[in-house]
Amino acid sequence: MIQRFEVGPRMSELAVHNGVAYLAGQVPEDTSQDIVGQTRQVLAAIDALLAQAGSDKSRILRAEIFLADMADFDGMNQAWEAWVVPGHTPARATAQARLVKPEWKVEIVVTAAA
After folding, report:
1. Residue 19 belongs to what domain range?
2. Which end of the chain has fewer CB within 10 Å, C or N?
3. Is 20 helix (H, G, I), strand (E, B) or coil?
4. pLDDT tens digits for 58-114?
5. pLDDT of residue 98
6. 95 by DSSP, 3-state: which?
7. Are 65 and 94 in contact (CB under 8 A)?
8. Who's near 74: CB < 8 A, 6+ residues apart?
9. How many structural domains compose the chain?
10. Which helix (H) or strand (E) holds 23?
């Protein structure tokens, strides 16, 4: 069985199958904020989606982080390290990418145990 959450015409924000939660890429809503603020927004969105799947950040298996500018790596890590659960840090990759909207500084995709 596949469960889909926040289903739209193009994509779902979350799909759960066989006890694994797959989140769509999460981006900030308030783009006036710096990288720390934008990352915090994205992490809060991830928390909310994981809760819908009956999961939480301690159960994240993998995170893929896309930065518009690698100069923001330290600021993103500042927010990330304050958010992750010590001892439960997931496998992670970070890359620079051209994001859909130029005002977005970060996009994060996670896969978690549900």
Report:
1. 2-113
2. N
3. strand
4. 999 999 999 999 999 999 999 999 999 999 999 999 999 999 999 999 999 999 999
5. 97
6. strand
7. yes
8. none
9. 1
10. strand 20-23
Neighbours of 9 (CB within 10 A): 4
d(CA 7, CA 10): 8
Q: Are 43 and 79 in contact (CB under 8 A)?
A: yes
Give SS3 for 91: strand
The per-residue pLDDT for range 4-41, each reduced to its tens digit, is 999 999 999 999 999 999 999 999 999 999 999 999 99
Token pair listed for 99: 């994001």
**Residue whose structure tokens are 């994509």:** 11
Structure tokens at 8: 């739209």
pTM here is: 0.96
Contact partners, residue 5, CB within 8 Å, separation at least 6: 12, 13, 14, 15, 16, 49, 52, 53
Q: What CATH number should be reported for the domain holding residue 27?
A: 3.30.1330.40
Beta-carbon contacts of residue 112 (< 8 Å; ≥ 6 apart): 20, 21, 23, 50, 53, 55, 57, 59, 60, 61
